[in-house]
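Pasting as-is:
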Amino acid sequence: MAHIIVLGNEKGGSGKSTTAMHVATALARLGHVVGGLDLDLRQRSFARYIENRHGTIAARHLDIAAPELMELPEIDPATLAEGENLLDKRLAAAVAELEGRCDFIVIDCPGSHTRLSQVAHSLADTLITPMNDSFVDFDLLARIDPESYEITGPSVYAEMVWHARQLRAKAGLKPMDWIVVRNRLGAQEMHNKRKVGRALEQLSERIGFRVAPGFSERVIFRELFPTGMTLLDLRELGVDRLNISNLAARQELRDLMRALNLPGVSVEF
C-alpha cells in the first residue's frame, strides 16, 4: 500500500503547493514512485507545477524523475449507491488507481475547508501543515490570550484534524503523523519568532503534532514554478555553481525531508 502524504492548511499563501512539489520531487529523485493529486479543483497550483515539469522534461530531453499527476476521474452519478457522495467516490477511485503502483501519494488540499479536503485528511498517513511563521497563521491551529499568549483552545483546523484522526482510529488505520512546518522563518531571531515557537511547542504537546523547519522566503521558488523544476534540479537548468542562497535552500529541503521521517526513505541529495 502506498504511503499517503497530505498537505493541508485552510489558509492560503503558506507555501503549501511549493512544499508539496518539493517533497514529491525529492521522493521521486530518490527512486520512489510518486503519484500526485491536487484537490484544489479551481487553482490547481500543484497540478500545474507537475504539468510544467513534464513539459520541461519533454522539451529539453531531460532524464530526471517526476511525480505522476492523477486527475480525479469522472464518475457517473447514476452508479452511486444510496447515500454515497460523488466527491468521495472520485477521490477514492483516484487513490485506488495510484496506490497499486506508487510508493507514495502526495495530496495537496485547497486553502479552504472543502469536502474533498476533509476526506483527504482522514486518508493521511503523514499530514504536513505548512504555516507562515506568524500568529495570523497560528490562529488556524489554536486561539491564544492576547495578553499572556497562553493557548485558550484549539481552532477550526485543529478540530478538523482531530476528527480525521478519530475516523482513522474507527477504521483501524495506523495513527496519523502530523507535522507543522514553519515556512518563511525570519533570518533574525526576532521576538515574534520566539513567541510563535514557544506557542507551537506548547500546542504540539496538547494536540499531538511535531514541528519542523520549512523554507525561508526566497525569490527562486517563484522563478522555478514555470519550468516545474525544484531546488534539486538546478544543475539540469544549467546552474553549474550554486550561490549561497541556493545552497541554504537545498539544506532546508534536506532538513525537512529528514524531519518527515518517511518510511523507507534515506535522504541522500
